[in-house]
Amino acid sequence: MNDPTKHQIPRRRILQWTVAGTGASLLPDWARADKGTGQPLRFGVISDIHQDIMHDAEDRLRAFIQHMSDEKPDFIVQLGDFCVPIERNRRFMEIWNQFPGPRHHVLGNHDMDGFVERKGAYAFSTQETVEYWGMPSRYYGFDAGGVHFVVLDANDPPPDHEGPRKGYSSHVAKDQVEWLEQELDASRLPVVLFSHQSLERGRGGVSNQAEIRSVLEQANRKAGFQKVIACFSGHHHRDYVREINGIHYAQINSASYFWMGADYPHARYSDEIHQRHPNLRFVAPYQDPLWAMVTIDREAGLLTIDGRSSDFVAPSPWELGADHEAFDSATLNPAISDRKLTLPALRE
To answer: How many CB atoms lie within 10 A of CB 292?
Structure first.
Protein backbone atom coordinates (compact mmCIF):
# COMPACT_ATOMS: atom_id res chain seq x y z
CA MET A 1 0.00 0.00 0.00
CA ASN A 2 1.13 3.52 -0.69
CA ASP A 3 1.20 6.11 2.08
CA PRO A 4 -2.05 8.06 1.46
CA THR A 5 -0.80 11.11 3.35
CA LYS A 6 1.71 11.89 0.63
CA HIS A 7 -1.16 12.91 -1.65
CA GLN A 8 -2.62 15.38 0.82
CA ILE A 9 -2.42 19.02 -0.25
CA PRO A 10 -0.28 21.15 2.06
CA ARG A 11 -2.25 23.91 3.77
CA ARG A 12 0.17 26.58 2.53
CA ARG A 13 -0.55 25.56 -1.07
CA ILE A 14 -4.28 26.04 -0.42
CA LEU A 15 -3.55 29.47 1.02
CA GLN A 16 -1.43 30.35 -2.02
CA TRP A 17 -4.28 29.39 -4.35
CA THR A 18 -6.66 31.58 -2.36
CA VAL A 19 -4.60 34.77 -2.39
CA ALA A 20 -3.12 34.52 -5.88
CA GLY A 21 -4.36 36.49 -8.88
CA THR A 22 -6.97 39.24 -8.78
CA GLY A 23 -9.02 37.98 -5.87
CA ALA A 24 -10.66 35.04 -7.65
CA SER A 25 -10.22 31.77 -5.77
CA LEU A 26 -7.94 29.30 -7.48
CA LEU A 27 -8.95 26.46 -5.18
CA PRO A 28 -10.05 23.28 -6.92
CA ASP A 29 -13.83 22.97 -6.78
CA TRP A 30 -13.85 20.26 -4.08
CA ALA A 31 -11.88 22.57 -1.74
CA ARG A 32 -14.14 25.59 -2.34
CA ALA A 33 -17.61 24.12 -2.45
CA ASP A 34 -19.83 23.89 0.60
CA LYS A 35 -17.06 23.49 3.14
CA GLY A 36 -18.73 22.98 6.51
CA THR A 37 -22.25 22.74 5.05
CA GLY A 38 -21.99 20.28 2.18
CA GLN A 39 -24.02 17.09 2.37
CA PRO A 40 -22.33 13.75 1.65
CA LEU A 41 -23.01 12.29 -1.79
CA ARG A 42 -24.69 8.87 -1.84
CA PHE A 43 -25.24 6.48 -4.73
CA GLY A 44 -26.58 2.97 -4.98
CA VAL A 45 -24.61 0.44 -7.02
CA ILE A 46 -25.49 -3.04 -8.28
CA SER A 47 -23.65 -5.24 -10.75
CA ASP A 48 -23.91 -8.45 -12.76
CA ILE A 49 -27.57 -9.25 -12.18
CA HIS A 50 -27.57 -11.37 -15.35
CA GLN A 51 -31.23 -11.21 -16.25
CA ASP A 52 -30.54 -13.56 -19.17
CA ILE A 53 -29.08 -16.29 -16.93
CA MET A 54 -30.62 -15.90 -13.47
CA HIS A 55 -34.18 -17.16 -13.06
CA ASP A 56 -35.08 -14.66 -10.33
CA ALA A 57 -33.21 -11.62 -11.65
CA GLU A 58 -36.43 -9.57 -11.74
CA ASP A 59 -37.02 -10.18 -8.04
CA ARG A 60 -33.44 -9.24 -7.23
CA LEU A 61 -33.67 -6.01 -9.20
CA ARG A 62 -37.07 -5.21 -7.70
CA ALA A 63 -35.64 -5.55 -4.17
CA PHE A 64 -32.77 -3.18 -5.07
CA ILE A 65 -35.08 -0.58 -6.61
CA GLN A 66 -37.46 -0.70 -3.65
CA HIS A 67 -34.60 -0.24 -1.20
CA MET A 68 -33.10 2.63 -3.17
CA SER A 69 -36.47 4.32 -3.59
CA ASP A 70 -36.82 4.27 0.19
CA GLU A 71 -33.24 5.45 0.81
CA LYS A 72 -33.30 8.18 -1.89
CA PRO A 73 -29.61 8.32 -2.91
CA ASP A 74 -28.43 10.96 -5.38
CA PHE A 75 -28.41 8.35 -8.17
CA ILE A 76 -28.13 4.64 -8.87
CA VAL A 77 -25.77 2.86 -11.25
CA GLN A 78 -25.52 -0.69 -12.57
CA LEU A 79 -22.06 -1.89 -13.59
CA GLY A 80 -22.98 -4.16 -16.49
CA ASP A 81 -24.11 -7.70 -17.38
CA PHE A 82 -27.63 -6.39 -16.93
CA CYS A 83 -29.76 -7.59 -19.87
CA VAL A 84 -29.63 -7.91 -23.65
CA PRO A 85 -31.89 -5.70 -25.81
CA ILE A 86 -34.75 -8.11 -26.55
CA GLU A 87 -38.51 -7.72 -26.17
CA ARG A 88 -38.91 -10.13 -23.27
CA ASN A 89 -36.61 -7.97 -21.13
CA ARG A 90 -38.95 -4.96 -21.31
CA ARG A 91 -40.44 -5.80 -17.93
CA PHE A 92 -36.96 -5.98 -16.42
CA MET A 93 -36.22 -2.50 -17.76
CA GLU A 94 -39.53 -1.22 -16.40
CA ILE A 95 -38.48 -2.33 -12.91
CA TRP A 96 -35.19 -0.43 -13.25
CA ASN A 97 -36.96 2.68 -14.50
CA GLN A 98 -39.22 2.79 -11.43
CA PHE A 99 -36.42 4.44 -9.44
CA PRO A 100 -37.51 8.11 -9.30
CA GLY A 101 -34.01 9.62 -9.43
CA PRO A 102 -31.14 9.60 -11.96
CA ARG A 103 -30.18 6.14 -13.26
CA HIS A 104 -26.88 5.29 -14.94
CA HIS A 105 -25.68 2.28 -16.94
CA VAL A 106 -22.29 0.70 -17.65
CA LEU A 107 -21.98 -1.74 -20.56
CA GLY A 108 -20.91 -5.28 -19.67
CA ASN A 109 -19.56 -7.93 -22.00
CA HIS A 110 -22.76 -9.99 -21.77
CA ASP A 111 -25.07 -7.09 -22.64
CA MET A 112 -24.59 -7.53 -26.37
CA ASP A 113 -24.42 -11.30 -26.60
CA GLY A 114 -27.02 -13.81 -27.73
CA PHE A 115 -25.99 -17.05 -26.08
CA VAL A 116 -29.49 -17.55 -24.69
CA GLU A 117 -30.75 -17.64 -28.28
CA ARG A 118 -27.58 -19.51 -29.34
CA LYS A 119 -26.50 -16.64 -31.54
CA GLY A 120 -23.07 -16.23 -29.94
CA ALA A 121 -21.16 -13.26 -28.58
CA TYR A 122 -21.94 -9.82 -30.01
CA ALA A 123 -25.26 -10.91 -31.48
CA PHE A 124 -26.38 -7.34 -30.80
CA SER A 125 -24.51 -4.14 -31.57
CA THR A 126 -23.34 -1.82 -28.81
CA GLN A 127 -25.63 0.86 -30.20
CA GLU A 128 -28.66 -1.43 -29.91
CA THR A 129 -28.01 -1.92 -26.20
CA VAL A 130 -27.23 1.78 -25.66
CA GLU A 131 -30.55 2.75 -27.22
CA TYR A 132 -32.51 0.00 -25.46
CA TRP A 133 -31.22 1.12 -22.05
CA GLY A 134 -31.55 4.84 -22.83
CA MET A 135 -27.86 5.63 -22.31
CA PRO A 136 -26.56 9.00 -23.55
CA SER A 137 -23.58 7.23 -25.14
CA ARG A 138 -21.53 4.08 -24.63
CA TYR A 139 -19.07 6.14 -22.55
CA TYR A 140 -19.85 9.47 -20.92
CA GLY A 141 -19.37 11.72 -17.89
CA PHE A 142 -21.72 13.43 -15.43
CA ASP A 143 -21.57 15.52 -12.25
CA ALA A 144 -23.33 14.79 -8.97
CA GLY A 145 -22.85 16.22 -5.50
CA GLY A 146 -19.55 17.95 -6.23
CA VAL A 147 -18.00 14.85 -7.83
CA HIS A 148 -17.39 14.12 -11.52
CA PHE A 149 -18.20 10.58 -12.63
CA VAL A 150 -16.74 8.88 -15.70
CA VAL A 151 -18.34 5.84 -17.34
CA LEU A 152 -16.08 3.76 -19.59
CA ASP A 153 -16.96 1.09 -22.15
CA ALA A 154 -14.26 -1.55 -21.79
CA ASN A 155 -15.65 -3.78 -24.53
CA ASP A 156 -13.59 -2.39 -27.41
CA PRO A 157 -11.72 -4.87 -29.63
CA PRO A 158 -7.93 -4.89 -29.22
CA PRO A 159 -5.94 -2.82 -31.74
CA ASP A 160 -4.67 -5.87 -33.64
CA HIS A 161 -8.16 -7.30 -34.13
CA GLU A 162 -9.32 -8.19 -37.63
CA GLY A 163 -12.58 -9.70 -38.84
CA PRO A 164 -15.71 -10.49 -36.80
CA ARG A 165 -15.32 -10.90 -33.06
CA LYS A 166 -16.00 -14.39 -31.70
CA GLY A 167 -15.09 -14.04 -28.04
CA TYR A 168 -15.31 -11.25 -25.51
CA SER A 169 -13.04 -8.21 -25.70
CA SER A 170 -11.97 -6.19 -22.66
CA HIS A 171 -10.12 -3.22 -24.09
CA VAL A 172 -10.38 0.59 -24.07
CA ALA A 173 -9.53 1.82 -27.58
CA LYS A 174 -7.36 4.81 -28.44
CA ASP A 175 -10.24 7.18 -29.21
CA GLN A 176 -11.81 6.46 -25.84
CA VAL A 177 -8.47 6.88 -24.03
CA GLU A 178 -8.06 10.29 -25.68
CA TRP A 179 -11.60 11.21 -24.63
CA LEU A 180 -10.81 10.11 -21.06
CA GLU A 181 -7.75 12.36 -20.94
CA GLN A 182 -9.84 15.32 -22.10
CA GLU A 183 -12.66 14.50 -19.70
CA LEU A 184 -10.30 14.40 -16.72
CA ASP A 185 -8.60 17.61 -17.78
CA ALA A 186 -11.90 19.48 -18.23
CA SER A 187 -13.25 18.93 -14.72
CA ARG A 188 -11.85 20.47 -11.54
CA LEU A 189 -13.93 18.15 -9.35
CA PRO A 190 -12.76 14.93 -7.71
CA VAL A 191 -13.36 12.01 -10.07
CA VAL A 192 -14.85 8.54 -9.65
CA LEU A 193 -14.69 6.10 -12.56
CA PHE A 194 -17.06 3.24 -13.43
CA SER A 195 -16.18 0.33 -15.73
CA HIS A 196 -17.46 -3.21 -16.08
CA GLN A 197 -14.11 -4.99 -16.28
CA SER A 198 -11.52 -4.21 -13.63
CA LEU A 199 -8.64 -1.79 -14.16
CA GLU A 200 -6.37 -3.75 -11.78
CA ARG A 201 -7.21 -7.45 -12.04
CA GLY A 202 -5.04 -9.45 -14.42
CA ARG A 203 -7.18 -12.32 -15.65
CA GLY A 204 -10.32 -11.01 -17.32
CA GLY A 205 -9.56 -7.37 -16.54
CA VAL A 206 -9.14 -4.54 -19.03
CA SER A 207 -6.36 -5.63 -21.38
CA ASN A 208 -4.70 -2.19 -21.42
CA GLN A 209 -5.39 -1.48 -17.76
CA ALA A 210 -1.85 -0.22 -17.12
CA GLU A 211 -2.37 2.45 -19.79
CA ILE A 212 -5.66 3.55 -18.20
CA ARG A 213 -4.18 3.65 -14.71
CA SER A 214 -1.31 5.75 -16.09
CA VAL A 215 -3.85 8.23 -17.50
CA LEU A 216 -5.56 8.47 -14.11
CA GLU A 217 -2.30 8.92 -12.23
CA GLN A 218 -1.10 11.52 -14.72
CA ALA A 219 -4.34 13.46 -14.15
CA ASN A 220 -3.58 13.44 -10.42
CA ARG A 221 -0.04 14.71 -10.96
CA LYS A 222 -1.22 17.40 -13.35
CA ALA A 223 -3.94 18.57 -10.93
CA GLY A 224 -1.52 18.75 -8.02
CA PHE A 225 -3.86 16.78 -5.78
CA GLN A 226 -5.52 13.34 -5.68
CA LYS A 227 -8.14 14.17 -8.29
CA VAL A 228 -9.12 10.61 -9.26
CA ILE A 229 -10.15 9.03 -5.98
CA ALA A 230 -11.78 5.69 -6.85
CA CYS A 231 -12.70 3.25 -9.61
CA PHE A 232 -15.63 0.82 -9.34
CA SER A 233 -16.01 -2.30 -11.47
CA GLY A 234 -18.01 -5.52 -11.59
CA HIS A 235 -17.52 -8.47 -13.98
CA HIS A 236 -15.35 -10.65 -11.74
CA HIS A 237 -18.04 -11.54 -9.17
CA ARG A 238 -15.60 -10.92 -6.32
CA ASP A 239 -15.50 -8.92 -3.09
CA TYR A 240 -12.42 -6.77 -2.45
CA VAL A 241 -10.87 -3.30 -2.66
CA ARG A 242 -7.30 -2.66 -3.76
CA GLU A 243 -5.32 0.60 -3.59
CA ILE A 244 -2.78 1.49 -6.26
CA ASN A 245 -0.89 4.79 -6.02
CA GLY A 246 -3.55 6.37 -3.87
CA ILE A 247 -6.54 5.34 -6.02
CA HIS A 248 -9.05 2.87 -4.57
CA TYR A 249 -10.17 0.10 -6.96
CA ALA A 250 -13.41 -1.39 -5.63
CA GLN A 251 -14.72 -4.67 -7.00
CA ILE A 252 -18.52 -4.83 -6.64
CA ASN A 253 -19.74 -8.40 -6.36
CA SER A 254 -22.48 -9.84 -8.54
CA ALA A 255 -26.04 -9.38 -7.35
CA SER A 256 -26.73 -13.01 -8.22
CA TYR A 257 -23.96 -15.65 -8.33
CA PHE A 258 -20.42 -16.82 -8.94
CA TRP A 259 -19.75 -18.62 -12.23
CA MET A 260 -18.30 -22.08 -11.49
CA GLY A 261 -18.17 -23.42 -15.03
CA ALA A 262 -18.71 -26.79 -16.69
CA ASP A 263 -16.43 -28.65 -14.25
CA TYR A 264 -18.86 -28.05 -11.37
CA PRO A 265 -22.42 -28.62 -12.67
CA HIS A 266 -25.20 -28.91 -10.12
CA ALA A 267 -29.01 -28.68 -10.32
CA ARG A 268 -30.20 -26.64 -7.32
CA TYR A 269 -33.67 -25.79 -8.61
CA SER A 270 -36.63 -27.55 -10.17
CA ASP A 271 -36.45 -29.29 -13.55
CA GLU A 272 -38.72 -26.61 -15.00
CA ILE A 273 -36.43 -23.78 -13.88
CA HIS A 274 -33.33 -25.52 -15.21
CA GLN A 275 -35.01 -26.21 -18.54
CA ARG A 276 -35.79 -22.52 -18.94
CA HIS A 277 -32.41 -21.39 -17.56
CA PRO A 278 -29.85 -24.07 -18.54
CA ASN A 279 -26.78 -22.05 -17.47
CA LEU A 280 -27.95 -22.11 -13.85
CA ARG A 281 -26.28 -25.52 -13.49
CA PHE A 282 -22.88 -23.85 -13.82
CA VAL A 283 -23.25 -21.12 -11.19
CA ALA A 284 -23.08 -20.91 -7.40
CA PRO A 285 -26.07 -18.65 -6.67
CA TYR A 286 -26.38 -16.27 -3.75
CA GLN A 287 -29.50 -16.70 -1.64
CA ASP A 288 -30.15 -12.97 -1.42
CA PRO A 289 -29.40 -10.17 -3.89
CA LEU A 290 -26.28 -8.10 -3.28
CA TRP A 291 -25.85 -4.37 -3.74
CA ALA A 292 -24.17 -1.45 -1.96
CA MET A 293 -24.71 2.14 -0.93
CA VAL A 294 -21.63 4.29 -1.45
CA THR A 295 -21.17 7.55 0.45
CA ILE A 296 -18.55 10.16 -0.38
CA ASP A 297 -18.13 12.58 2.51
CA ARG A 298 -15.87 15.43 1.41
CA GLU A 299 -15.75 17.00 4.87
CA ALA A 300 -14.68 13.80 6.60
CA GLY A 301 -12.47 12.68 3.70
CA LEU A 302 -14.16 9.27 3.62
CA LEU A 303 -15.59 6.93 1.02
CA THR A 304 -17.87 4.42 2.71
CA ILE A 305 -19.27 1.24 1.15
CA ASP A 306 -22.28 -0.19 2.95
CA GLY A 307 -22.83 -3.62 1.44
CA ARG A 308 -24.93 -6.72 1.99
CA SER A 309 -24.11 -10.30 2.97
CA SER A 310 -25.76 -13.54 1.94
CA ASP A 311 -25.01 -17.25 1.70
CA PHE A 312 -24.57 -19.61 -1.21
CA VAL A 313 -27.58 -21.61 -2.25
CA ALA A 314 -26.34 -25.05 -1.18
CA PRO A 315 -24.07 -26.68 -2.06
CA SER A 316 -21.33 -24.06 -1.80
CA PRO A 317 -18.34 -24.07 -4.18
CA TRP A 318 -16.27 -25.75 -1.46
CA GLU A 319 -18.87 -28.49 -0.95
CA LEU A 320 -18.63 -29.15 -4.68
CA GLY A 321 -14.89 -29.66 -4.32
CA ALA A 322 -13.60 -26.29 -5.52
CA ASP A 323 -9.98 -25.68 -4.55
CA HIS A 324 -9.66 -22.77 -2.11
CA GLU A 325 -6.38 -21.56 -3.60
CA ALA A 326 -7.38 -21.95 -7.25
CA PHE A 327 -10.68 -20.12 -6.67
CA ASP A 328 -9.13 -17.51 -4.31
CA SER A 329 -11.46 -18.14 -1.40
CA ALA A 330 -10.45 -14.82 0.22
CA THR A 331 -12.42 -12.89 -2.43
CA LEU A 332 -15.01 -15.54 -3.44
CA ASN A 333 -17.55 -14.43 -0.91
CA PRO A 334 -21.37 -14.10 -1.21
CA ALA A 335 -21.17 -10.52 0.04
CA ILE A 336 -20.25 -6.94 -0.65
CA SER A 337 -18.27 -6.09 2.47
CA ASP A 338 -18.68 -2.88 4.43
CA ARG A 339 -15.63 -0.66 4.00
CA LYS A 340 -14.47 2.78 5.12
CA LEU A 341 -11.77 4.19 2.83
CA THR A 342 -9.75 7.31 3.61
CA LEU A 343 -9.65 10.05 0.99
CA PRO A 344 -7.02 12.49 2.26
CA ALA A 345 -7.28 14.64 -0.87
CA LEU A 346 -10.80 15.65 0.15
CA ARG A 347 -9.61 17.22 3.39
CA GLU A 348 -7.78 20.44 4.09
So the answer is: 22
